[in-house]
Amino acid sequence: MVIPDELIKEVMQEVIDKFLKPRFIELGMNASGSWLAALEARVNNGVGEIWGRDYTYWLNNGRGPNHDQSTEAINRWAAWYGPNVMKPWAQSKGLIFDNYFLLARSIALNGTKKRPERRNFVDLLEGKEVKDYIYSRIRIGVTAQVNKDLNIKIREIFR
Q: Fewer Cβ in 10 A, N or C end of the chain?
């Protein structure tokens, strides 16, 4: 039996809501809420996928310094990143800094720390609890579909 895309998508959305979002919040990673709002369950050729913001990798792994360490490249990046990313992030946390450009420049020069505890927020998707949940939900959904299909066939036979 082919598992219906609707069931796969529903289960993946449940994984987002029951596992991924709570872990992200528990780790204190939520700032503006845009990362949480962007999470989306999709199905691609019968495979459940979770899509989100393009910066998820850096949230999970930290960010290295800019490859181009020239003063011009660093300043150009910091001039954009400071007001467009750092300032909204800080404001969402209730923080106020005198100079967002300097904060962004420091990130461009030095990168950000890799925090081992944060790796768990995405790695949990490959953990036993999440896998067991997915298998259980798919099994229940498929069983319900088979029972529904069987009841329809039986009704057709006894007409």
A: C
Is the predicted pLDDT of residue 144 greater than 80, yes or no?
no
Range of the domain at 103: 66-112
Q: How far apart are CA 31 and CA 52, in angstroms?
A: 15
Q: Which amino acid is at 20?
A: L
Amino acid at residue number 71: T
Which of 112, 130, 145 delimits the end of a domain? 112
Instruction: Let me know: does 74 contact 105? Beta carbons within 8 Å.
Output: yes
List residues bridging with 40 in a β-sheet: 51
- C-alpha–C-alpha distance, residues 50 and 125, integer Å: 10
According to DSSP, residue 94 is labeled: T
Is 74 in the same domain as 147? no
Q: Name the domain count of the chain.
A: 2
pLDDT for 27-61, tens place per residue?
Answer: 888 877 889 999 999 999 889 999 998 888 888 77
Distance CA 87, CA 100 (A): 6
